[in-house]
Amino acid sequence: MPEKTNETILIVDDIADWRDTCSDILGDEGFKVLTASSAMEALKILDERSVDLVVTDMTMPQMSGIELIQKIRERDHGCGIILVTGFPTVETAITALKSGASDYLLKPFSPEQLLHSVNNALDKSRLARENQFLKSQVAGLSQYGDFIGRSEEMRKLFEGLGRAAGMDASVLLYGESGTGKELAARVLHRKSPRVKKHFAAINCAAIPENLLESELFGHEAGAFTGATEMRLGLFENADGGTVFLDEIGEMPLGLQAKLLRVIEDRKIRRLGSNKERQINIRIISATNRDLPAMVAQKGFREDLYYRLNVITISIPPLRDRKEDILLLLQHFLNLHGTRERPSPREITPDARDALLRYRWPGNVRELANLAQFLIFADRDGVVTVSDLPIHFGVASVAPDRRAEDVISGGSMYFDLPMIEAKKHLLDEFEENYVRHALLKYDWNISAAAEASGIDRRTIHRIIAKLGLKRPS
Questions:
Q1: Taking the domains of the chain in order of start, what are their residue ranges?
Q2: Would you say 229 and 221 are in contact if contact means Cβ atoms under 8 Å apart?
């Protein structure tokens, strides 16, 4: 029996007998075959599935084979195309090739002629993809999307991602929550030779165990209660591309064994099916857990750990790349600002200092959320330290800082008796807290009081004491 291949071929013709004949010939050679009875159906399939080669008839209702070729090239699907016709002319052949066809096949043809044309077209497509990948590498083309940074830590990360992208080995990403592990996985896919295929992501911690297996492997109709129709899983949908398994440390042990077999045998079996299906995927996984410790405690399979951990990339927390914080904040302000809600035009030095001192437990995700908050709360285009959420004032200071640095205004209270100094500090905290709550809730005193757990009279008292006025 011919060796299985992960390459998918789409047969397009309005004549069912011809579609079936070509499908049988190519299917017997191990190709995955899809069929369409019209050009419009073919375009719909191409928008939803990864296809390596299209074999289309010239003469069809509504849209001809030449028009289909032009539509495919306009949408940049990147697949090879063979045009088939029973009415050959030199003009048709030239038009087909100029439109982007890889080859031109005349009816009637033998199985050998079809296979020869198909293999030549696939070879051309592979070569074109590899050349494009090499050109991007030589030119130093590096598209990192929202991965922004000029720190030494990010420079090393970019170098590591660039090296790993060209390899086809499994990658394990380590990083705290919010550091951008999925973003890194997408960069690896986008810069790899698999870029024309699908990228599929799933969070292993977000889906119950009984549903996670179905999401990954798919299921047949009737496989379990509620499975009314066949459904492809992530592995099959991403065939030829990349699968990103986030929070891999949360995957149940039973499912870990099945994942190991996918990696070793490159085969999957849908739930409710006895048939194994060949797949070709690259697996990128990510975790914020200590997997070696989990292996030692029998909470994670050792054999799977070594299969996933061929290449390890660590993503630094935001607190370890302080020089990127303001750069990232400006990026997110620009990203989320609108004409109705423009981003602030200035960040004062005291606000900058507070942002740089803060520990950022939520990392880049927390910074992105802060940018949206500042756009919402902004009234005069200037961000001051009082505009920041209250925890930036005290929690931003590392434990080893001197106590004076925690107190707004330095050491002005240290010469006072402790009870009096404490009263000043509490008053100051209360005032800052209320000021922030009013800004956050757009001076809706009822909303600020309810959210803060402060009665409305207290808020009115502090407003009067400070002489605060609602911004115009």
A1: 8-135, 152-316, 319-466
A2: yes
Please report which confidence band the pLDDT of residue 407 belongs to, taking 50, 70 and 90 as the band edges: very low
Assess whether the region 8-135 and the region 152-316 belong to the same CATH fold. yes
Phi first, then psi, for residue 165 (nearest 5°) are: -60, -40
Arch. (CATH architecture) of 152-316:
3-Layer(aba) Sandwich (3.40)
Name the more confident of 295 and 144. Answer: 295
Just give the CATH number of 8-135: 3.40.50.2300
The CATH number of the domain covering residues in 319-466: 1.10.8.60
The pTM assigned to this predicted structure is: 0.59
Tell me, what amino acid is at 96? Answer: A
- Report CA-CA distances (Å) from 273 to 214, 217, 226, 263, 278: 12, 11, 16, 19, 14
pLDDT, one tens digit per residue, over 129-154 is 655 554 444 343 344 666 788 889 99
- Sheet of strand 32-36, all strands in order from the earlier edge strand to the far edge: 32-36, 8-12, 53-57, 80-85, 103-106
Per the CB < 8 A criterion, the answer to whether 242 and 197 are in contact is yes
Do you know the residue count of the chain? Answer: 472
pLDDT digits (tens, 9 = 90+) for 151-187: 899 989 999 999 999 899 999 999 998 899 999 999 9
Name the pairing type of β-strands 242-246 and 199-203: parallel
**Which tokens is 329 given?**
């904040």
